[in-house]
Write a structure and sequence with these properties.
The structure holds 2 protein chains of 2 kinds.
Chain A (H helix, E strand, L loop, with lengths): L1 H26 L8 E5 L7 E2 L1 H8 L5 E3 L2 E2 L1 E5 L4 H11 L3 H13 L8 E3 L2 H10 L3 E6 L8 E2 L1 E2 L13
Parallel strand pairs in A: 2-9, 5-6, 5-7
Antiparallel strand pairs in A: 1-7, 1-8, 3-4
Chain B lengths: L1 H21 L1 H31 L8 H8 L13 H10 L7 E13 L7 E4 L1 E9 L4 E12 L2 E16 L2 E9 L5 H4 L26 E11 L6 E8 L20 E8 L7 E13 L5 E13 L5 E13 L5 E12 L9 E11 L12 E13 L2 E11 L7 E11 L1
Antiparallel strand pairs in B: 1-2, 1-3, 1-17, 3-4, 4-5, 5-6, 6-7, 7-8, 8-9, 9-10, 10-11, 11-12, 12-13, 13-14, 14-15, 15-16, 16-17
The chains are: A alpha/beta, B alpha+beta.
């Protein structure tokens, strides 16, 4: 038991060290760019969320805005910049990890369906306008007048230190 | 005069044509560029016109501020347009009930060990079908059926069959057959081998193993607990508990007049995204086929870092049995620690991992019929695509003190479809 425990501890230590080493490397590789606005259906009873709360919504841990209004997640299809930012900043996952996350989530019976995929900002706007409870992510350059844009940590797109870029 | 102009024009045309023939690629590139620019301009114009058309008169939060900060001025005078696009996409996104989704999981395995009498070779793992079907905005059905290869054919099993009503995020009530929410692994990974990092489950949560009751038939309430940054959640349920066969749930009915209950509390702290801490309690009365009755308490705790750089899963459980007649007490313990890391090279397809696990059951234990075990697993997972993986493992285990260790090589390809 003692010998095997020592071996186990050595391997665990080496793997921990590898983890810390590469964590530092990958953190240095993040990039910055134009802001991504969080747009919701006009009747959504929310106007300000922290980044952690947005994460809870996107992770499917918060599935209702209130008892009568379920969250409808709209995510851009792969390759879109909006999706890249959402995966990098909020999910902190690669494309494969994101796919696996939602398969596992449904498999665990924690969610009945994955986010709906939208193929353009146009489509995101149309759905966010007609689907109660919908939340979408669009390039701040394309924000239309009249759209309900959420403040993230009290900041709007274009503000200094805005989280989603 | 006109003839002169015509000659000049002809000359210019032929010169231009000759130049164009001399460098067709450059010319085409220019044309494509020009066309792309034109398309871009037209797309912008269409978007602007549509924006004007669909903009609500009462400006909500601060879209105007965003536009002012991020976007140049809008051109005026939008013409009327038809909303065909909107109806198409909205129609596609409309929810239909019931809407059954089926996902399959399967794996093929190879194993070879130096244990005396063991045979090496290939085997088909489990074919697993998962069903999810929203029945309305707040009611969903989840099911899981497995087909496991046996020497005489395939054994079909209903692993889970759950109908759930969501009131809100804080209260969701479901009925059916579950994977018992004791600890982490048993409720997180279920049967699809592709979902878990390793080839096999830890011994303490092995399907068909006796240590914890893997399945549970009854009802379960679950949800989030309002707790700010602590991110607390719960699941609590009442069910039949262990059946006559200790490793099975009482699917067709309880084997005594005593219900089991389970409570699982966990925290996902907001500031430490990826971390999950939790503890579970399970209480049951077990009636063995020989008529002996035991009170069972299972207490468990887990610590999980759910990201993949690194991934850490650690779980401990204690199973306490007390015989009702003799008050004979026994405590069996098990734990595992699993660490993995998704390497940054080769498009993050490689993930080495290591797991140490331990099970101890005292000689006074009369219910579990379990051998002690100490084991290490060292493996490498290679995700060949988004939905398929190869895994290879070396395992070193010892079942009984004093007995030789068993070394084994295990290979698996697992996938979802």
């Amino acid at each position: 038991m003692k010998t095997s425990c020592k071996r186990a501890m050595t391997i665990l230590f080496l793997l921990c060290w590898l983890g810390v080493f590469f964590q530092g490397q990958s953190a240095a590789q993040t990039s910055r760019g134009p802001d991504i606005a969080v747009v919701v259906h006009p009747d959504t009873p929310i106007s300000d969320l922290s980044l952690a709360e947005v994460r809870k919504v996107l992770l499917g841990e918060r599935q209702y805005w209130n008892a009568k209004l379920p969250v409808v997640l709209l995510i851009r299809a792969p390759v879109a910049r909006e999706r890249e930012v959402v995966l990098r900043v909020i999910y902190q996952m690669t494309e494969n990890q994101f796919k696996k996350f939602w398969i596992a989530k449904i498999f665990r019976a924690e969610a009945a369906a994955a986010p709906k995929i939208v193929y353009s900002s146009e489509m995101a706007y149309e759905l966010v306008t007609v689907l109660p409870g919908a939340i979408a992510f669009v390039d701040a350059h394309d924000v239309r007048p009249g759209a309900k844009v959420l403040r993230i940590d009290g900041r709007l797109p274009g503000s200094r230190d805005y989280a989603l870029r | 005069m006109y003839r002169g102009l015509l000659v000049i024009a002809m000359l210019a045309f032929t010169t231009d044509s000759a130049w164009g023939q001399a460098s067709p690629a450059a010319d085409q590139t220019e044309q494509v560029k020009a066309l792309l620019e034109r398309i871009e301009k037209l797309e912008k114009r269409v978007a602007e016109l549509e924006t004007k058309q669909s903009a609500a008169p009462a400006d909500s939060l601060s879209a105007a501020n965003v536009a002012a900060a991020q976007k140049p001025q809008q051109p005026e005078a939008p013409p009327a347009r038809e909303d065909h696009g909107m109806h198409t996409t909205a129609g596609q996104a409309e929810a239909h009930y019931p809407s059954l989704q089926i996902r399959g999981f399967a794996d093929a395995d190879f194993s070879a060990t130096d244990q005396r009498g063991s045979l090496s070779g290939f085997n088909l793992g489990q074919v697993d079908l998962h069903l999810a079907s929203p029945l309305s905005g707040k009611i969903s059905y989840f099911g899981e059926i497995t087909f496991t290869a046996q020497s005489t054919g395939y054994a079909a099993e209903v692993e889970r069959s759950i109908i759930r009503y969501d009131y809100n995020d804080h209260f969701k009530l479901s009925f059916g057959r579950y994977h018992t929410p004791i600890g982490y692994w048993n409720a997180a990974f279920h049967h699809g081998a592709w979902l878990q990092t390793t080839i096999s489950r830890p011994e303490m949560v092995r399907v068909g193993g006796p240590f914890i009751p893997v399945h549970f038939v009854g009802f379960l309430a679950e949800g989030n607990i309002p707790s700010g940054g602590a991110g607390l959640g719960y699941s609590a349920g009442v069910g039949n508990g262990r059946g006559t066969s200790i490793s099975r749930a009482g699917d067709a009915g309880d084997n005594n007049n005593n219900r089991a209950w389970v409570v699982n509390l966990f925290a996902r702290p907001v500031k430490l995204y990826g971390l999950q801490l939790g503890a579970s309690l399970y209480r049951d009365k077990i009636t063995l086929t020989n008529g002996r009755n035991f009170r069972e308490w299972i207490s468990s705790a887990h610590l999980v870092w759910a990201k993949e750089n690194p991934e850490l899963l650690a779980e401990f459980a204690n199973v306490h049995h007390r015989e009702v007649l003799s008050s004979l007490v026994s405590n069996s313990q098990a734990f595992y620690v699993q660490l993995g890391y998704r390497l940054p090279w080769l498009e993050k397809t490689l993930k080495p991992y290591y797991r140490f696990e331990y099970i101890h059951s005292p000689s006074s234990e009369a219910v579990l019929n379990l051998q002690d075990m100490v084991g290490s697993t060292l493996g490498l997972r290679y995700d060949i695509s988004s939905y398929a993986a190869f895994k290879s493992e070396y395992r070193n285990t010892r079942r009984v003190a004093g007995q030789p260790r068993v070394n084994g090589l295990f290979l698996q390809t697992s996938f979802t479809f």
